[in-house]
Model the fold of this input.
Amino acid sequence: MAHRSLLQVLFVTFLSASAYLPEIGGLAGDDLVEVNRSQREFDYFALSLQWPGTYCRGTRHCCSKNACCRGSNAPTQFTIHGLWPDYNDGSWPSCCYRSDFKEEEIATLNDGLEKYWPSLSCGSPSTCHGGKGSFWGHEWGNHLQSLLL
Done:
């Protein structure tokens, strides 16, 4: 059952990403084609899972966004750390273009993301263009937006 739910979250993630295809961060039409020329097609997806039990053992600081701090509701199964496009040479496409992550646009996915793709820390990870943001914003900017090219 958990395996099926995880696949559903991944599927919905891909569907959500595809919603950005018509217009991405102000890029549309010819502009998007121009950005696409600078990025080669990736070779495969790397699915990175994490074991919260081990990771959470090192948690020293708690905050509302840290799934390790949920007490009896803390994750007890493998969770997603990331789904990344990769190249066979060990490199990966990253920060393909500037597109701000808008968490309110995925609000309907929040329960599934919190369960299967939670943040296990309190920090604000860096984004592609020097800012700080949410864990999901980091994954979007550094990895997932490249899927749209």
Remarks:
- The chain is about 30% helix and 10% strand.
- The beta strands are 44-50, 79-86.
